[in-house]
């Protein structure tokens, strides 16, 4: 678990790997807990802003640059960020067909 200082910029990344034998299109959706802290978590650059395309067997580094608002309530001592990468391959193929 890393400690961050409100008001300071941070860069980190997540790694995603396509373990299938097909191209996958994905969309990452973030989740911040506790929910009242989400207003104080500012994403400046995020892989979640765009769809991700992963070729067969490809692993990609997905960057995140963020800052925690310095006005984060003192009662919030722990902030948890997680992402779910949804497979939207079927939806992307449907949209392309139309």
Model description:
By secondary structure, the chain is mainly beta. It is 9% helix and 47% strand. It contains one helix and six strands. It has one helix spanning 89-97; strands at 9-17, 24-33, 41-46, 52-54, 59-68, 80-87. Strands 1-5-3 form a three-stranded antiparallel beta sheet, with no helix packed on it. Strands 4-2-6 form a three-stranded antiparallel beta sheet, with helices on one face.
The count of helical stretches stands at 1
Overall pLDDT, averaged?
Answer: 91
Give the tally of β-strands: 6
Give the low-pLDDT segments: none
What's the arrangement of strands in the largest beta sheet? 1-5-3
Oligomer: single chain
User: What would you call the shape?
Assistant: elongated
What's the topology here?
Blueprint: E1 9-17, E2 24-33, E3 41-46, E4 52-54, E5 59-68, E6 80-87, H1 89-97
Antiparallel strand pairs: 1-5, 2-4, 2-6, 3-5
Question: What key phrases describe this protein's structure?
Answer:
98 residues, mainly beta, three-stranded antiparallel β-sheet, 6 strands
């Amino acid at each position: 678990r890393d400690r961050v200082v409100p008001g300071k910029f941070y860069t980190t990344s997540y790694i995603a790997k396509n373990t299938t034998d097909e191209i996958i299109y994905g969309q990452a959706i973030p989740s911040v807990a506790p929910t009242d802290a989400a207003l104080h978590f500012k994403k400046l650059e995020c892989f979640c802003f765009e769809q991700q395309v992963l070729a067969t067997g490809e692993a990609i580094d997905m960057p995140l640059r963020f800052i925690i608002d310095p006005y984060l309530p003192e009662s919030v001592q722990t902030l948890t960020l997680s992402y779910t990468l949804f497979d939207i391959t079927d939806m992307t193929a449907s949209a392309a067909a139309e």
